[in-house]
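Please review this pair:
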Amino acid sequence: MSLIVNNMVWAAQALTATKTLVSVSAEYQKCLSLIIEIETAAFSGTLDIKGRANPDGTYTNLAYQEIDIDGTRAPTNDQLSYTTSTARTRYLVPLAAFDTELVMTRSAGSISVRVTGSGMPIILPMSAKLISLGDQQLTVPVGAVNLTVPTGARRAVIQVLTDQIYFTEDSATPSATNGMIVNAGTVINYLDADYSTLLANFEAIRVTADAKLNIFYYD
């Protein structure tokens, strides 16, 4: 992992506080990735993971992924919020900022935070576990239609029924001269990576008669 630094930022912290990691250890500025381990004890409050690109920049929330036994959750930069939480969770910041700070508010309990910094970028595989986020049946007429992708869906299985379709994945309108033709009975799998962009850009039209798509969505 090319470990550069591993420090406890807060140990059973019971007061609202902001901590800039460079003030903990200047080695954090050499890190490309961070793993933040958070342990709460009846804790109520919030935590923001913020960074800036240079010493004169503005701190904004960094993208992170929750790490669990099944792999990783979808990336987000949302504020972490806790209500009487007692748990231990780890988060990966795959692209660390020049300066990183943790901003914590507290109304009850305590929180401990340890941050490990790596000199190499860390890319985690998709979880092998599929969590259903809903399904959809879509009629494909002569005009192009899009999928209605649930929030957080990164993977999907699409079954084509009743007739052939043309489809595209780049927001371009499909036609007989643009896109891929797929026969009725075909199953299109988007399962082995993060396909959220392709699913958002997916468009389809019928070939001769209206077709049907059965779609299952997953995280």
Summary: The CA atoms of residues 126 and 193 lie 6 Å apart. DSSP finds two helices and 16 strands in the chain. The two ends are 27 Å apart (CA to CA).
